[in-house]
Design goal:
alpha+beta
């Protein structure tokens, strides 16, 4: 079985964010760091290759693939801040429709600037995602 690429490291979260070239994205990343830390109650940790994660859980799929992943996380990517989430289907569209300007995929929200979204809705998404994941998987 292939080794997981996304593993927790001892790399500096602050150094990682300070290396973000775009000033707005860098400032937004520091703000999002505070928001997620306060919302989850977990300290930020770097997860390779470029994810800032909060808390962790262990997953194991029917295929036998297993590993650890952050309960909440984000990455200041070149094109957008990427927030990772996992919501129950019945809450997903309701919350995303109230979030503001963003795009999303199954497990990611892409935000150009934090000013474009409703921070209170984002906090709800992060908290619900954390709680939902903790129900599905034993957390550490």
């Amino acid at each position: 079985m292939a080794k997981n690429k996304t593993t927790e490291t001892q790399n500096s979260v602050t150094d990682f964010i300070n290396a973000v070239e775009n000033e707005v994205k860098r400032k937004d990343a520091f703000e999002l760091l505070k928001i997620i830390q306060k919302t989850t109650g977990f300290e930020p940790k770097m997860w390779e290759p470029s994810i800032i994660g909060f808390g962790s859980y262990h997953y194991k799929y029917e295929s036998g693939h297993e590993g650890d992943a952050p309960l909440a996380g984000f990455s200041p990517r070149k094109t957008a801040l990427t927030v990772y989430f996992y919501l129950p289907e019945e809450k997903r569209e309701e919350l995303l429709s109230k979030l503001g300007k963003h795009t999303s995929s199954k497990a990611c929200i892409y935000i150009k600037k934090l000013a474009d979204v409703d921070i209170e809705i984002l906090k709800k998404i992060i908290l619900l995602s954390k709680q939902y994941t903790q129900k599905l998987y034993p957390s550490k």
